[in-house]
Amino acid sequence: MPPKENLTHTERMIASCTGALLTSLVVTPFDVVKTRLQAQAHPTLWQCEQHFAHGVFDICQTCGVDPANVRFRGTADAFSRIYANEGLVSFWRGLPPTLLMALPSTVAYFTTYDMIRERLGSDRSSTPVIAGAASRTFAVTLISPLELVRTKLQATKGYSLLDVIGDVSVTVRREGWRALFRGLFPTLLRDVPFSIIYWSGYETLKKWRLRGTEGNLTFLQSFTAGALSGTLAAVMTLPFDVVKTRQQSSIGQPQNGMAVQSGKDSARQIMSDIVRRSGYQGLFVGIVPRVAKVAPACAIMISSYELGKSYFTQNRLAP
Asked: What is the mean pLDDT of residues 10-24?
């Protein structure tokens, strides 16, 4: 059994913030590629001159461009063409809102999880399920408006943060403040099960490795357990990630264009439309960059967090 940590909230916050910063810097490029792949699968067809200026990749009914020449053909093609057309810095598009999200979200998520886990008791098999679900629901709801901005920024080529904020402002005036939480339901459908699967897997691997002995996992052990648990959770919850991207990337699109899909469409409607147009494989668009993002993200985050907690446990902060 691992020893009781007896950490302060400040120590937990510092440990989680450090992990969130490292994770965001490393995995944002994979998130950009994943979002572009998912957003292109059912784009809104704008007028011809707007069609390409805003990075919407599908056949243009006005100019008749072959979609094979404008669509990303996969993860490697997306990386290559984004780099060639937009430069290296474009892979960190959406980093400012990502950091604004990551810090409060991670602090809320990991601190809340640890508090609930300690209150329920780490020996109970149901603890990772309850603590994971409750902490993730709280954190996701807290940062949902920032997640909306980040997704729109990453999904749309040539858009600046000010452009996205302008689109969001117009949509809020038209639809009310609830528009800021567009995509919250599919995000919860993705993140709450993800959290349950992830923490259940991680805590199981942790108990198996320690086998009732005193101590904590090493950095490498935490890294490996986090990567394995994160990969499983990412694959199982990917369809909800696709739905979330579709809902959030549609904000600010014209309501009188061709083949417009309203951002108000329910998760079930969007999922049904994806299956009808692309088959069930359409629900797993972006699986490679998602796993390439989530696996190292989970590994870096949990190993950094555990390392930070170990440091503070062994070297108490001065009062």
From this structure: 89
